[in-house]
């Protein structure tokens, strides 16, 4: 079932995630959410290639924790999002 006519599922999920960080007390700023989406989108292809060739899955959790720990110090809840 479609929530809105003409919108793709990706746009709907991006909008719902954006609304969730804005209206619930997550301590995550809107620009940090967009940065997280950009990081995951840009690393999807290289991580997929590494997994296809070596059958080893590499996660982004350590990289993103370092980045958000530096960008948003003192916000541990935002780090767990």
Q: Any low-confidence stretches, pLDDT <50, length ≥5?
A: none
The 3D shape can be described as flat
Which quaternary structure do these chains form?
Answer: single chain
Beta-strand percent range: under 5%
Backbone structural class: mainly alpha
- Helical region count? 5
Helix content: 55-70%
Radius of gyration, CA atoms, in whole angstroms: 15 Å
End-to-end Cα distance, whole Å, is 27 Å
Order of SSEs: HHHHH
- The pLDDT mean sits at 82
Which properties best describe this structure?
mainly alpha
Give me a quick take on this structure.
The protein has helices at 9-23, 30-42, 44-54, 61-71, 76-80. The longest helix is centred in the N-terminal third of the chain and has 15 residues, at 9-23. It is built from five helices and no strands.
What does this structure look like?
- The chain has 81 residues and is mainly alpha-helical.
- It has a domain of 54 residues.
- The relative contact order is 0.14.
SSE order and pairing:
Elements: H1 9-23, H2 30-42, H3 44-54, H4 61-71, H5 76-80
């Amino acid at each position: 079932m479609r929530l809105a006519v003409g919108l793709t599922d990706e746009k709907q999920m991006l909008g719902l995630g954006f609304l969730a960080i804005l209206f619930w007390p997550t301590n995550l700023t809107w620009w940090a959410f967009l940065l997280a989406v950009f990081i995951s989108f840009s690393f999807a292809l290289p991580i997929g290639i590494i997994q296809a060739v070596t059958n080893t899955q590499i996660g982004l959790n350590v990289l993103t924790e370092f980045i958000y720990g530096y960008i948003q110090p003192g916000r541990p809840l935002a780090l767990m999002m």
